Amino acid sequence: MTTDNDRTQRGIQSIEVGGQLLRALVHHGRPMALKDLAREADMTPAKAHPYMVSFGRLGLIEQDGASGHYRLGPLALQLGLIGLQQANPVHIATPLTGPLARQIGQTVGLAVWGARGATMVHIAQAPSPVHVSLRHGTVFSLTRTASGKLFAAYLPPAEVRAMLEDERRREKQRKGEAALQAGMPTPQPLPSWSAFEAELNEVRAHGASRSTNEVIPGVSAMAAPVFDHSGAIVLAVTAIGPTGVFDTRWEGALALALGACARSVSEQLGAPRTKPG
Fold it and tell me: Among the three residues 85, 116, 142, which one is the final residue of a domain in this structure?
């Protein structure tokens, strides 16, 4: 008797073999000759050709009449578009946050861009007994947090500048309240637009952002961007922890692990291979 588990585990080998040809075509992202496709799939052109004929009949590939090169067909394009529509960045990234938190030993969160700025929507606590607590729904400062600066680096400048001015107005209001209430700490002044632009250039240059003791003394953070198929930023993968044990080096182990996680999610969303900006 065939069990449900047998049915889910058993596949059709010929489909998996032929799928290597489609994988090669997708990986290179350009029309390819049969011999090149066959080489990438580790098979002979004679073996590869029948697969390409069948894929062509299904609309998964099509052949250029002049060059004879193969490219993705209309059905493949439709499947890709539907896949992009169904792709949810948070849903894809969430299962990766727990393993990442254990790997780097720091709390990991996912932030999206909301009406008020970068907003925390998922948290995986650090495995160590000493960690920084975060809450879902926390909105991060545009200029003083790793998540805020990360979104600012990749969002349209006009939108970012408007948010900076809005944050400046709120800061002015808080300073007024602090003057009326003795003992309330006065926050550091916000940067000018030109100074903030210099910070954002650094973020784009490294493909990540960081903050050290900027919001809370003794707390540091680093964030890496997730991009969608259009190259737009859709998510920040953020690590946060005690400054004394937090590695904020651009090429440190934490930054590399954070970047690898963000790139993995971006790839699943169909992001361009070249880094935007």
Answer: 85
